Structures are given as structure tokens and as C-alpha cells.
Amino acid sequence: MAKVATLITDMFEDIEFTSPKEALEEAGHTVVTIDTEGNKAIRGKQGEARVEIDHGIDDVKPDDFDALFIPGGFSPDILRADDRVVAFAKKFMSDMKPVFAICHGPQLLITARSLDGRDITGYKSIRVDLENAGAKYHDEEVFVCQKQLVSSREPKDLPAFNREIVNLLKEKEL
Description:
Residues 3-167 form the DJ-1/PfpI domain. By secondary structure, this protein is an alpha/beta fold. The chain has helices at residues 14-26, 75-79, 83-94, 106-111, 127-132, 158-172, and strands at residues 3-7, 30-35, 41-43, 50-52, 55-56, 67-70, 99-102, 119-120, 136-137, 142-145, 149-152. The protein has one domain (3-172): Rossmann fold, CATH 3.40.50. 33% of the residues lie in helices and 22% in strands. α5 (127-132) links the parallel β8 and β9 (136-137).
């Protein structure tokens, strides 16, 4: 089963973390939360979810994980200001490991300069940013690019997103 690194900080979109986390865990995968610092709790922007952070970014390496999950909300925009977090995400993309990004999650991949020539979807307000980063935007509930990058637009797309992230990990037998 896969060990999934989750880059997350305060102001994440609650359901965009809790729903995929549940789907991954039900499929037998381990979800590990990572922020700029460990040993703390964070809150979602809706105030519904409280998450204990498992590790700070300095305590982990991309090679310790099989896949990367980036929930949306304001969290990806906050995290992309930290070069350590950006480098962590970039390594998953350059190694072609599974990456799951929903809503504003792709903002972190834009900053990592990892989307040139890739197909993706995301929240409509970042469409131009994605296109400027060299990605081809698809206005679909879920898009899987090169059997590696799974993206969705918003909370209503979660059933399709969850299905595809679980399917991709099953296909890769992680």
C-alpha cells in the first residue's frame, strides 16, 4: 500500500482534505501530513476540520513516499512561498510519482515549474495561471495526465477525484 505525503497548512479547504484522505485510507493507504513545521495542529478555512501535522518539511524526503496529495483552499498558496515545500513537490513531478491536486492545489505545482506541457484542471480562477505555466487546461471534473497527475476543480468533483486517485494507486500497485 502507498504512503501518501500530504502538503497542507492552515486555511485548507476542509472537505478537499477529509474526503480524499478517507478514500485513500479506506483503500488501505497511509496519509501523512506535512507542513513547514511539525508538532502542531492546523484548521481548515471552514472551521470544520482540525488536522494534526505529522512532520515538518525538514523531517521528510520525497523518497520516503509513494505519492503526493495537495488539497485546495488557501493552503497551497501559503505553502508555495516556502522553497523547501516547492522543492519537495517538484521532486514528485520530476520523478513521475503520482501527484493528486484539487482546486487551488496546482498553485504549488505552478511555482515548482512542473506543469509545462502537462494536461490539468483546477479551480476556474487559476486557469490563466495554469495556462501561463505551460499547461493545457481542461474544464472537467477530473483529469488524469500521463497516468501520474490527477487533478480536479472543486469540492463537487470529489467523487470523481477520489475514484481516480485510488484507481491510479491500484494501477501502480503501490
